[in-house]
Each structure stands twice: as C-alpha cells, then as structure tokens.
Automatic annotation (TrEMBL):
Subcellular location(s) of the protein: Membrane
GO cellular component: membrane
Species name: Paenibacillus sonchi
Protein name: Ger(X)C family spore germination protein
Pfam families from the UniProt entry: Spore_GerAC, Spore_GerAC_N
Keyword Manganese tagged: no
Matching PANTHER family: SPORE GERMINATION PROTEIN B3 (PTHR35789)
Ranges for domain Spore germination protein N-terminal: 27-199
Chief location: membrane
Lineage: Bacteria, Bacillati, Bacillota, Bacilli, Bacillales
Entry-linked InterPro entries: GerAC_N, Spore_GerAC-like, Spore_GerAC-like_C, Spore_GerAC_C_sf
Domain Spore germination GerAC-like C-terminal: 230-391
PROSITE patterns in alphabetical order: PROKAR_LIPOPROTEIN
Family membership noted in the UniProt record: Belongs to the GerABKC lipoprotein family.
GO biological processes: spore germination
Amino acid sequence: MNHRRLGFSLLIAMQMLLPLVLTGCWDSVELNRRAIVSGVAIDRGPSEDQKYVLSFQVIVAEEISGEQTRSNSPVALYSGSGRTMFEALANASRQTARFLSLGHIRVLVISEKFAREGIKDMLDVLERESDMRLTSLVFISKDQPASEVLSTMTVFSKIPANDLVEKLDTTSKQFGYNYKMEVDDVIRGIQVRGGGPVINGVFTTGNRDRANSNDNLKTITPDTILRISRLAVFKDDKLKGWVEGKTAFGTVLLLNKLKEFPVVIKNDNGYLAFNVYQSQVSVEAEAKDPEHPVIIIKITQQAALKESPNSLDLTSPEVLEKLSGQLTKEARSQIEGAVAAARKLESDYIGFGEAVERENPHGWKKIKDHWEDIFAACEIKIDADTVIRHTDMRGNSFQVY
C-alpha cells in the first residue's frame, strides 16, 4: 500500500514539474507580425560610426496577394546604419511595425566600394546568424550604391529580388557567362590560398528618376532596367577588378560553370553564329617539381550552327572541319585571355593552385606561401577540341539568284 502511495505521489510530482521543461515555442512570432525580407543591400557608410548601411527589401504581402490591395508598391525598402551589421539591422528594425524575418532572403547585394575594402566580416555575420540561409545569391553592384539595385521596380516580377534570381537563372542556362554564386560558395572561395571568389556584377541603366516607382513599368521601354553583367574577381576577400566579354567566358570555362553560350566567328564569307551547348573542361597539373608545375587544360565542346548568311557548303565535311578548327581557336583564345587577366590581377581565382594541391599535396605545403610568384610564371598547356554536331533545321542557306 505504501508503494502505491509513493508511486502515485511521484506521478503527481512529475506532472507538476513537466510543464517547467516543456517551454514550447517561447520565441515564436505570428506570421502577421513578420516582415518578410526578400533582399539585402550592403553599402559603405560615410564614417566608422556608420560603417555599415543595410537596406532591407520587405515584401508588402497585401499588394502581392491581391487582397486588400491599395495599388501601392509591392515592396518597401528600410535602411539602417551602424558600426556593425547587427547594429545596422537593429536601427533598421525601428522603422517597421513588424519583425524583420531574414529566413527568406534570396539576394544579397554588396556595393563595389565595400567589396574593395573586404567582405570577410559581413560574411561571418551571415554564416553565424541562425535565421540566414547560405543559399542566398550574392551580387556586387558596379559603380553605384547597392541600395539602388534593390529599389528598382522590374517588369516581370513584382519583387525586384525575385527578378534578379530569375534573370540569373535564365542567363546561366543560355547565352551568358554569369552563374549562380551563393553565400556558401563565396565563403569557400575566400579561403582558397592565393585566389578568391568570382561574383556576378549587377547594375542599372537608364534614368533613375522613376526607377523606384510603378511609373517605371507603365511604358513599353522602362526608364530603368536592372542588368546582370560582368564578373567581379577577388583576391582573398577584396575585390581586385572586373572581367567581361571573352575574358569572362574564358574564366567561367576554366571554372567549368558554362552550360550554353553563343560564339561568333568570321571567315571570308562573313560572320557565322554557333551555339555551344556542351562544354567540358578539366584543369590538371604536372607537379613532381612543385616549384615549376605545368598546368594542363583540356576542353571539349559540342556546337550547333545557328546562323550562316552566306554560300558555304555546309554538307561538306571539309567545310565543317574547318569551322570546327575556328571554334577551337576561339576557345583557346578565351582561355588564354582568362589566364592573362588572372595573372594581371595577381589572383588565382581560376583554380590552378587547387590543381597543384590535388596532384602533390606534400609539395603544395612547401610552395603555398609563395604560390603567387609561381602562378605568374608557370607553364600552361591547352588541349582543345570542338565538334559541330548539326546545323539545326536545314543544311545550306538558301540563295537569291
């Protein structure tokens, strides 16, 4: 009987103590009390007391859903400054009646001015903050404040941050050298010895007077257009310069990130356009003597003829073989240009050092502290091959007689 009473007493005691450890969602915030942040812009402030200027692109849910709409802007931009990013976030949060929710940030835009000073500290905050996700896409705003990028109304998406994501997705699959670069990719790129990350550039063109209002969308030709172009290349965590055109294509080729891109060549009959729809690149090293490595670049491409406004006989194997040779020459030129640009900027963002480390880890430890000197003078061998697989929907071009 005493055992039953003791057990019953213990059961009652546990029932009374259990609620004390079951705290539940003690820090929960209701959805209607959250301000969903879709993008963040980071600018350099005018002084050390205002070093970080953060601008948060907040979604106005009522304007997006269509219910209770007031025909206002679908997003709002709130800015705050401070000595640290966390202080700037706190100052920005005082301007909104809701809690800034950072878990849905899709885009992070850093100003060129700040990128030249270094981005390591701000990335440390992003990696440390539990609400942030490391899959947010990173951009560098060229020649303008990052806040101007996120305050530009766009045609195809009500939310400018989403428009940036969709533009990058389109250009990475067709016609362009820009590819997805996430926060986690940038952090890993910074830690590469002698190199650094490669980040997409973004800027606006046109008249900015109406860029931040719905008036920018009311004409056939928008006053301001948000563009993704150029690549920002880094040494460690500092921006060293920009590459574009053939140099940018060669850079992304070496990183093996290109999916599909156009190539234009010229012969005696005029210009021909090709679509390179498959490209495989490998970067290896012969590093028995790590002080004098040989970098071997192998590239294979498959292309389709897209435009031939001339009288070439495209059914002739000899003609196609000659055109393939021109495409191969163009690929070599792109690679050589990318290597020359990296050496000029004194940054191995194209990954040659990683190839040497893979081939000879023990030797790499001996040279990693002076790899910059070796990178500037090491021998490069390029083995390229391009095959024209087809000429699309017709063979020879029609002629007017």
